[in-house]
Amino acid sequence: MNNASSSINAELDTSASDSVASITEMEMPSPEQLGISVVSGPEGGIPAVTVGDTFDFPVTVSWNVQGSALLVIPTGSANAKGLTQVGVSQESARSVKDGSEVASITFTYKMVAQDTGNLHIPALKFEIPTQMGQPLDLRSESVPVRVNEPFNPLPVVVGIVVAVCVLCAGVWRARRRASVRAAVATRNAAADALRERMIVLKQRVNTADSREWLLELESVCKGYVVAKFPELAEGNAAPVSLDTLVKDGRLEGWETLVEEFAHARYGGGARADYENRETWKAAMRLMNIDEDG
């Protein structure tokens, strides 16, 4: 870049001598006439960034070369609303394109995003000194930048926790409903079985031995009591005693029925059929069993 004063002559460079010869002394040729181009931003555009991020923004000035070089001077900054320039570097390069040698200078602006939204890096200005006393002005294009809010994991975590809680509550409700349905089904099955045994006893009231019939009825009543008081069915519980439950006041109204069972156990005599039918009706009432289901 030290030979800048000789690199741009009256025609700015040797490759443009023929096109500049027809231009008057006071008229400056355009960058396009001299084969100078300016490209802003990375290829494909600037990806979205987050507030506080630092990113690079390149601007490349290139021209056709025939043994000459240009001095390119940046004359402005890339500062804009929500964007701050914190540094700039430059790098020169040469390449061959379509059989012609092309030189370039890339200015890399280091930017910091300080606000959110659809922002823009402004058009940047450059000057190329000439022997005509008036510099050649170059201008890049404005480039959009999307700046997003920083990622906050808290709403996501809260959402996941809420979703898990809702899911767990749903599973718990489903299991509870299933448990209730199972318990109801078990109770209904037990009630149906109890009703069937009582119907069989009713059918045998005229033919069975009174003592055996009453003891079988007592067995049915004990099954009802175990279903009513589940703790009586636990492994360490004592055998079910209707007499004890009546004395403890846990079977109100069962006194007469329990006395009949005790009378049968200790060798009570024969009974009339109507007496057994009345006992059967009393047992049905005490166990809340509907004969018709």
Description:
With 293 residues, the chain is α+β, with helices and mostly antiparallel strands. The protein has two domains: 4-151, Sandwich (Immunoglobulin-like), CATH 2.60.40; 155-286, no CATH class. 38% of the residues lie in helices and 24% in strands. It has helices at residues 4-7, 17-21, 153-203, 210-228, 242-247, 255-265, 273-286; strands at 36-40, 49-50, 54-65, 73-74, 83-97, 100-113, 117-121, 125-128, 136-139, 143-148. The strands form three sheets. It has a four-stranded antiparallel beta sheet with strand order 1-3-6-5, with no helix packed on it. A three-stranded mixed beta sheet has the order 2-10-7, with no helix packed on it. Residues 1-25 have low confidence and may be disordered.
